[in-house]
């Protein structure tokens, strides 16, 4: 695993914070991941995993030492060597994912205590040009 970016927010990222990743995938890209983690107990609250080998985006959570039921995005709007923007934010019920401002996924929270989601990381085949973490004010 190649860690490209990691940030912690001790007060919690969910709900209320929006992550906006701008980047490009290299020609030899096979997959990358954006993970929202519960830092204290090794859970992955939300694993967002575009796979170029399958032209599919797999979403899942890793809890109690295993992966749960996978959920797939309905579309794959990513191309190798093409710049993209991914925005992920959550409200109290779901993570919401937009690629280039089109919604591609709504993922119902599986972690009960959202306050424990304190870390975000970007992993593997992606060249990050910017990553913005911004407060969403819609509550
Ligand atoms: C596994 C893969 C993990 C993760 C998981 C999601 O097959 O090894 O990295 O993507 O699927 O369900």
UniProtKB/TrEMBL annotation:
- Indicate whether Calcium appears among the record's keywords: no
Q: Which residue windows are coiled coil? A: none
GO MF terms, alphabetically ordered:
carbohydrate binding
Arranged from A to Z, the UniProt key words for this protein are:
Lectin
Boundaries of each Galectin domain copy?
5-134
Recorded hits in InterPro entries, A to Z, give: ConA-like_dom_sf, Galectin-like, Galectin_CRD
In terms of superkingdom, the source organism counts as Eukaryota
Q: Name one Pfam family in it.
A: Gal-bind_lectin
Q: Mind telling me which PROSITE patterns this protein's record contains?
A: GALECTIN (PS51304)
Q: Which residues form the signal peptide?
A: none
**Which protein is depicted?**
Galectin
From which organism does this entry originate?
Answer: Carassius auratus
């Amino acid at each position: 695993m190649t860690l490209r970016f990691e940030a912690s927010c001790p007060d919690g990222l969910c709900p209320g914070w929006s992550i906006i990743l701008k980047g490009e995938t290299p020609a030899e890209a096979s997959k990358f991941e954006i993970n929202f983690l519960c830092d204290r107990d090794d859970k992955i609250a939300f694993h967002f995993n575009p796979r170029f080998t399958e032209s599919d985006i797999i979403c899942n959570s890793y809890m109690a030492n295993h992966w749960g039921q996978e959920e797939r995005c309905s579309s794959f709007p990513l191309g190798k060597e093409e710049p993209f923007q991914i925005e992920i934010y959550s409200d109290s019920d779901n993570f919401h994912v937009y690629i280039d401002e089109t919604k591609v996924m709504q993922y119902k929270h599986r972690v009960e205590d959202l306050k424990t989601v304190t870390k975000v990381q970007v992993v593997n085949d992606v060249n990050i040009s910017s990553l913005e973490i911004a407060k969403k004010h819609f509550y």
